[in-house]
Amino acid sequence: MDKTTNKRHAKRIGLMGGTxxxxxxxxxxxxxxxxxxxxLEKVIFIPAGIPPHKTRKDxxxxxxxxxxxxxxxASNPFFTVSNLEIKRAGVSYAIDTVQxxxxxxxxxxxxxxxxxxxxxxxxxxxxxxxxxxxxxxxAATRPGFKLESLNKSLSYYSHHQLSKIKTLEVPALxxxxxxxxxxxxEGRPIKYLLPEKVEEYIYLNRLYK
Length: 209
Known about the structure:
It is built from eleven helices and six strands.
């Protein structure tokens, strides 16, 4: 059997990058729906070390975000967490992460799971053409998200490149990390927006105060 045939039947692995400050049910539901719909063997959550598109100076320490992600996925045997970006020096670019994952999983097809809002900014990503050659993208959308805006943003790409970008509607994406941080600051409840173990960790470590 040649390498082409092997690759055609390769197992699929999902990569879910993000700041995860904090991780919440929207992230988890998106990963689980993507795992089922695209037949992913597993999903690896990769908290960013230094996110390239974030300007907040008060972003939580990487160790906190890694621990919250680890607690959040502990009950799902198909989910795992990687500290790849956190232990790597410098800004966390997706191309560097995917290249490293290609080295770790040379015989697997990689699917990068992210929000449709992030895909709208894909033109600003470092070496996005190289990214589209290395992996497919799953753009998780909120209900009511206008796919026309996504298509317009991606009109620059070839048919082959566009075929590497899939869309997936996920109702739970109405939850946001920004809202959760604001709720904690204002003393409002965050229960049921994120896993209980993550909620406990936030209060125990007085995050977002």
